């Protein structure tokens, strides 16, 4: 990747971050007088995107963002109140900018028609489509007296003294001058006094400085300063002298006289000239410090860097290999100890051998500790706060609630809880499905809520937290809950179950995760087509997690997603089936038991059930499922590993258990066809390959897994 492409990628990343800031800020705006601080934050993000686009000559984005900037500028100057219409149009503008950035990222064409429609909507607002009413001032009066910045007449004198390293920051002086030339007539005078001797000359450094004269009518100081925003103070020293300042310097006596005597009121034909922007709208002054006050120490900023994901993946793979090496050495140490016990030699040789074994064990202990520390450190590089997924939800809630005419408060907790980046990206769509369903099917309309004695504004709460070695994400709503009887009736109508099937309320509610199943009375573009919750469960299972729902009629529902911290390392239980070893994810194991044949019950000559306390669970013979010929077949000669996934349970029959081990997951997708019930593979300490079981698919082998309970 060349230097320019690197800068371009950085620009895109920063632009996407800026769009997230803009979207969050717009959603926080309330109708009425604008929150100046919030509007300024949105404006700065838009301004940075516009400035970055200028660097690369993305004129479509510059023109579009300029209109959005103008709308925001009217709000922050107090010339326009915040309205729902303006907020919605600006949110659409953010969507368009995001589409533009995505097109640039993928080297695709920008959809100019779509962008033009939204730009026209913004221009309509600016041209009077919506009244631009000034916001009330802090003193309670009108802000009519606050005048917008007036264009200065005359010549602007600008000094540009760049750092010698200016080019290395991706800034090009000639491009900056061309942009300045769009404001008026520009003359440039170069100063070469900093030029070094020829032998010291570096073609990648800047030695010239410039004196610029900008002439023209209608030039605003903000527009001039905007051209130099990316280098002023960080790459160059910029001194801008407006025409008014030159006039004041040339005629000090006249200026003094104007101060001594009150100025005459302007006539109707004469509009008062505005001062520099800082004078027209002074910033709030900080409170004066008392004598003896200690200066407030500057808050230490935490540094951060962007790292190419491929480099992190390579590092993760290397750590995985280190874990395997450590496992091999550990096994070698155990073998050496066994040899030491078996071989009878002289007392001295035995002593030397014991010392060698002790030192080997000590070294392995250090290696194991350092490997685990390195593993945790490397995995933390990939960890991101769940806020990256949560931050999409305010916009979803805003759009869906408006479309459905509902009032929703979104509450988010635990946004700093961290999760593997790959899992976080895959988690976003399931979260969107659940939140949309909670608003559509869960939370009632304001009228119905008032009839039930509830506040007219419903609540959707998203929370993330640690529990054991997992991350739990819960989506809670205070809506109507899920009617188990209605779900049963729909399931019977669709042929999912028969009228003879006796399902508990929880089992009935779990039917919402079946493909194509929906209780919605009408299909809308929000939900109701039955293509959501089954996808949610499938995607969550693909991440090695589970999703469950608890509900109470009339009070609401709670969806709980349980996920492992990472997809790269797995705590597993080794099991032997014939000559093969398999890994059970430890998170899925409930218990392991010796089989009592008297508790085994056959159904239809094929399905076997085992009575585990008050519940019958299916027996899955792993050797039959995976075609292992030399495995044990007598249940009493092996063990049942009781596993659970998504409320389903079964007993998986294996020959023996070999102990627990942390394993590195290796994907088989690139080299092998998909194998039923296998999630991946790992390399054990002795160099052999062991397959990792997919518990969800294994339980699906028996579709009735967990449905034969005789008691809850």
Give keywords.
712 residues; alpha+beta; Four Helix Bundle (Hemerythrin (Met), subunit A); Alpha-Beta Plaits; Heat Shock Protein 90; 4 domains; six-stranded mixed β-sheet; five-stranded mixed β-sheet; 21 helices; flat; disordered C terminus
Can you put this structure into words, describing what you see?
- Helix 1 packs antiparallel against helix 4 (84-105).
- The protein has four domains: 3-127, HPT domain (Four Helix Bundle (Hemerythrin (Met), subunit A), Up-down Bundle), CATH 1.20.120.160; 155-241, Alpha-Beta Plaits, CATH 3.30.70; 309-337 and 352-517 and 530-567, 2-Layer Sandwich (Heat Shock Protein 90), CATH 3.30.565.10; 569-705, OB fold (Dihydrolipoamide Acetyltransferase, E2P) (Beta Barrel), CATH 2.40.50.
- It starts with a helix and ends in a 12-residue tail after the last helix.
- It contains 21 helices and 22 strands.
- The protein has a six-stranded mixed sheet.
- With 712 residues, the chain is α+β, with helices and mostly antiparallel strands.
- The longest helix is centred in the middle third of the chain and has 35 residues, at 347-381.
- The protein is flat and about 100 Å long.
């Amino acid at each position: 990747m060349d230097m320019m492409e690197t800068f371009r990628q950085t620009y895109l990343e920063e632009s996407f971050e800026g769009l997230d800031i803009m979207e969050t800020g717009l959603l926080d705006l309330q109708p009425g007088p604008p929150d100046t601080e919030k509007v300024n934050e949105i404006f700065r993000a838009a301004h940075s995107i516009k400035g970055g686009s200028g660097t690369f000559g993305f004129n479509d984005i510059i023109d579009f963002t300029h209109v959005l900037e103008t709308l925001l500028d009217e709000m922050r100057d107090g010339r326009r109140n915040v309205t729902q219409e303006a907020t919605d149009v600006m949110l659409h503008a953010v969507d368009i900018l995001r589409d533009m950035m995505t097109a640039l990222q993928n080297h695709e064409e920008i959809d100019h028609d779509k962008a033009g429609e939204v730009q026209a909507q913004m221009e309509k607002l600016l041209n009077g489509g919506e009244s631009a009413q000034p916001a009330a001032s802090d003193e309670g009066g009108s802000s009519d007296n606050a005048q917008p910045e007036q264009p200065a007449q005359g010549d602007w004198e600008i000094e540009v003294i760049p750092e010698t390293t200016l080019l290395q920051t991706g800034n090009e002086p000639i491009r900056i001058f061309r942009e300045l030339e769009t404001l008026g007539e520009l003359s440039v005078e170069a100063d070469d006094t900093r030029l070094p001797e020829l032998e010291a000359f570096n073609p990648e450094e800047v030695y010239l400085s410039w004196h610029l004269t900008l002439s023209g009518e209608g030039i605003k100081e903000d527009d001039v300063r905007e051209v130099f925003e990316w280098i002023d103070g960080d790459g160059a020293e910029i001194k801008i002298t407006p025409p008014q300042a030159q006039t004041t310097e040339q005629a000090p006596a006249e200026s003094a006289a104007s101060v001594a005597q009150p100025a005459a009121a302007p006539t109707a034909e004469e509009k008062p000239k505005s001062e520099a922007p800082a004078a027209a709208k002074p910033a709030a002054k900080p409170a004066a410090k008392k004598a003896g006050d200690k200066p407030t120490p500057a808050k230490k900023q935490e540094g951060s860097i962007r790292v190419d994901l491929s480099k992190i993946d390579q590092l993760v793979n290397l750590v995985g290999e280190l874990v395997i090496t450590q496992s091999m050495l550990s096994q070698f140490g155990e073998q050496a100890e066994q040899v030491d016990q078996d071989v009878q030699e002289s007392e001295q040789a035995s002593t030397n051998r014991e010392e060698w074994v002790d030192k080997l064990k000590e070294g392995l202990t250090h290696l194991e500790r350092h490997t685990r520390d390195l593993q945790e450190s490397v995995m933390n590089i990939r960890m991101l706060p769940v806020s990256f997924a949560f931050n999409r939800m305010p916009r979803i809630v805003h759009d869906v609630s408006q479309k459905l005419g509902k009032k929703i408060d979104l509450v988010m907790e635990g946004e700093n809880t961290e999760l593997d980046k790959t899992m976080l990206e895959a988690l976003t769509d399931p979260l969107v499905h659940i939140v949309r369903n909670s608003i559509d099917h869960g939370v009632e309309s304001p009228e119905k809520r008032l009839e039930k004695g509830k506040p007219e504004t419903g609540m959707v709460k998203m929370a993330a937290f640690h529990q054991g070695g997992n991350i739990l994400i819960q989506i809670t709503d205070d809506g109507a809950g899920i009617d188990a009887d209605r779900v049963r009736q729909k399931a019977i109508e669709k042929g999912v179950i028969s009228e003879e099937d006796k399902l508990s309320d929880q089992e009935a509610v779990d039917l919402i995760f079946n493909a194509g199943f929906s209780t919605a009375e009408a299909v809308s573009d929000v939900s109701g087509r039955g293509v959501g919750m089954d996808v949610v469960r499938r995607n969550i299972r693909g991440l090695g997690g589970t999703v469950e729902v608890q509900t109470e009629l009339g009070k609401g529902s709670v969806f709980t997603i349980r996920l492992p911290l990472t997809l790269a390392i797995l705590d597993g239980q080794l099991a032997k089936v014939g000559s093969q070893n398999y890994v059970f994810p430890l998170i899925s194991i409930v218990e392991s038991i010796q089989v009592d044949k008297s508790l085994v019950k056959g159904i239809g000559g094929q399905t076997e059930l085992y009575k585990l306390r008050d519940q019958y669970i299916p027996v899955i013979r792993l050797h039959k499922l995976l075609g292992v010929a030399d495995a044990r077949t007598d249940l009493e000669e092996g063990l049942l590993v009781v596993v659970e996934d998504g409320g389903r349970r079964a007993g998986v029959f294996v020959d023996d258990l070999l102990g627990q081990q942390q394993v590195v997951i290796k994907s088989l997708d690139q080299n092998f066809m998909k194998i039923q019930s296998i999630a991946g593979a790992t390399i054990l300490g002795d160099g052999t390959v062991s397959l990792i079981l997919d518990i969800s698919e294994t339980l699906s082998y028996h579709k009735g897994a967990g449905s034969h309970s005789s008691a809850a």
